[in-house]
Amino acid sequence: MLHPIKNKERKRIVKERRDVTRTKNAIERAYIELLIRNGYKRVTVNEVIELAGVSRGTFYAHYRDIPDLEEKVEERVIRSLREACVVSFPVDIRRSTRTQLEDIFNMFYEYKDDFKKLVILENNDKVIHKMKQILVDAIIRTEVKDMLVGKIGEHKTAMLFESAAGAFVECFVYWMRHDETMTRETALSAMTDFIAGGIGQMLSQK
User: What is the tally of structural domains in the chain?
Assistant: First the structure.
């Protein structure tokens, strides 16, 4: 049985952690909303704390400045996608390439709104590169790698992963830029046709 004092201390620590998480979420949500309204260059600390309902001291207790806040938001989104890929990356050599690409698209789609704000509004090449690397790393961890190495060799396999991941992310970003005039279904169909066709052509080479 926990000592009453220790139990109170544990509850206090848990509450403080929850409060910190709640505060940081409010600040980051405010930043994202202001990013949409004003664009990155015009977002100020005063605007963020006013919208988030926190003090200036609270802001600086968690972030050095606006660029640091931006980096933390990027890290949160990237971390969520990376964790999703580790837990349930939808690649299975028993299924068609097209079906697997559709499943990967659906996984990325869950983070579309966050990526659109970070990538499109800020033209953020750093986030695009991280998205691609997450995809490459996830594919490498699957049994697909060993199968392809045995079929086309290590170097061609590495090139295939890099080019397929790059094409996927660039196509996804293109669609996010044009989602008002290009439907999700049209984008998915074009992406799977383009990427699956390229993969099939490479695998057919002897």
Answer: 2
Is pLDDT of 3 > 60?
no
Same domain for 48 and 81, yes or no, is no
CATH assignment of the domain containing 35:
1.10.10.60
Q: Which H/E stretch holds residue 165?
A: helix 154-177
Mean pLDDT confidence for 52-79: 90
d(CA 176, CA 130): 17
Q: What is the pLDDT of residues 44-54, one digit of tens each?
A: 999 999 999 99
Look at residues 11, 46, 63 and tell me which one is the last residue of a structural domain: 63
Task: Report whether pLDDT(95) > 60.
Answer: yes
pTM (2 decimals)? Answer: 0.72
Please tell me the total number of residues recorded for the chain in this structure.
206
- Nearest-angstrom CA–CA distance, 130 and 135: 9
Q: How many CB atoms lie within 10 A of CB 4?
A: 8
The whole domain housing 25 covers: 1-63
